[in-house]
Amino acid sequence: MRDKRSRPASTAVDWQECLRLRPALLRLARQRCPAGAEPEDLVHEALTQAAELGRVPPDRLAAFLALVVGRLCAEEHRRQHEDAALFDHPRLRPSTPEDPTERVNDRLEGRWFRQRLRDFSTRDRNLLLLFADGLPHTEIARELRTTVGATQSALHRIRERLR
Cα-atom radius of gyration of the chain, to the nearest Å? Predict the structure, then answer.
């Protein structure tokens, strides 16, 4: 079996013909390429594939290059579609950088809240902690051994005192 690199010079692609076909190939690539793709790169890749193959008859070179450019455009469309689907996944989106002023405001709000919590009873603080953990009113009532109505009422009174 003969190595691709050791081809005789007589089977090489006619580069003069490739240069003559290049403007038509660029037009084809511009028509079929998705946004963001470089038609120049796709045409260059098609010419490279023709050179690597090396045994394209001169009368079929135009059709071969047009076919390769079309397939490369289709592959680019497919790649961009797959990338969009992958990068659109919510878990893979990069997190938005946090605004430093938000962090400062959160700290100041946390200090204010801690100071205000000193005024509350231990029972009210426990109620707030359970509520902050996201427990439903029924679970909080069961934990504190009270009724759901009493829990809701106590949370309402705490909210009023915090305002």
Answer: 35
Enter the pTM of the model: 0.47
| Tokens, residue 161 | 């005192």
Unique residue bearing structure tokens 């069961």: 142
DSSP state for residue 146 in the 8-state scheme:
S
Burial 67-106 (b: 16+ CB within 10 A, else e): ebbbebbeebeeeeeeeeeeeeeeeeeeeeeeeeeeeeee
Q: What are phi and psi of 35, to 5 degrees?
A: -60, 140
pLDDT along the chain (163 residues), means of 10: 48 77 90 86 88 82 90 89 72 68 82 82 86 88 91 89 79
Q: What is the dihedral of CA 117, 118, 122, 123, to 10 degrees?
A: -40
